[in-house]
Specification:
alpha+beta, 24% helix, 38% strand, 245 residues, 12-stranded mixed beta sheet
Length: 245
């Protein structure tokens, strides 16, 4: 009898390990622009926000993941529905124009960018997020709040320009025990179901969890540079553009 119990426990443990190794999923997010409370009386501004959000409704963002990797990207609307100028503005909101790849085995987050005719990968450092006990429910999951800030150094581009501080507010659930999220966010005790970056908010609208392994898109085999190198390149490029002003 004891041998049968031991054998049963062994089979169960193997099954659990196998299930954990095959854990994967696909999360669909919608992105929306937050209305600035100081400008709610500005009819032109409110109209602009509503127009941008109208584009964003038809532009879902997707996070695909397995136990060790994730891929974050957005899906453009049909070409016939596009206003290219507004689409570009909608894409740029919340730092989400490009694709992001996360690999837990190498502890890396890479953003795929185009610099002229060259394609590069930008390596991001891990955010130092402050965990809190504040909770709310998203899609039936209990989520916990975490926060940090990111500074965009406009002051390095042109004298007199002020740096911009983007608030980052993340809501994650440990009911889905994978450390992935939108953009370059990773390393939290659970899956991110909502994230605010500056004036844009990503909210999970469809959560698909599978107990099987799913392959993630391969990372492009191109040159990798650090976030600091990338920022310096952008600063130098924009500074040159303002040279005669």
């Amino acid at each position: 009898m004891l041998k049968k119990i031991v054998l049963l426990l062994f089979i169960l443990s193997v099954y659990v390990v196998k299930a954990q190794n095959n854990y994967s999923g696909k999360i669909t997010y919608t992105k929306a622009l937050i209305t600035n409370s100081e400008k709610v009386g500005d009819a032109k501004y409110v109209s602009y926000v509503n127009t941008i959000n109208g584009f964003l409704i038809d532009m879902p963002y997707v996070l695909e993941f397995n136990k060790s990797e994730s891929h974050f990207y957005h899906v453009k609307p049909m070409a016939s529905d596009l206003n290219e100028k507004l689409l570009k503005k909608a894409e740029l909101l919340g730092k989400s124009k490009n694709q992001f790849y996360t690999n837990l085995k190498t502890s890396t987050v890479l953003e795929e960018v185009n610099r002229g005719s060259e394609k590069l990968l930008v390596s991001y450092p891990k955010y130092n997020l402050k965990l809190t006990n504040e909770t709310k429910s998203i899609g039936g999951y209990t989520c916990y709040k975490a926060t940090t800030k990111e500074v965009v150094e406009f002051s390095k581009i042109k004298k007199g320009y002020k740096d911009k501080v983007n608030d980052i507010v993340v809501w994650y659930t440990n009911e889905v025990p994978v450390p992935f999220g939108p953009l370059s966010i990773y390393g939290l005790p659970g899956l991110v179901l909502e994230m605010q970056y500056g004036s844009a908010v990503y909210t999970a609208t469809k959560i698909e969890i599978k107990n099987k392994n799913v392959s993630i898109k391969d990372i492009p085999k191109v040159k990798i540079i650090s976030k600091e190198e990338s920022d310096n390149q952008m600063i130098n490029s924009l500074s040159n553009a303002f040279w005669d002003f």
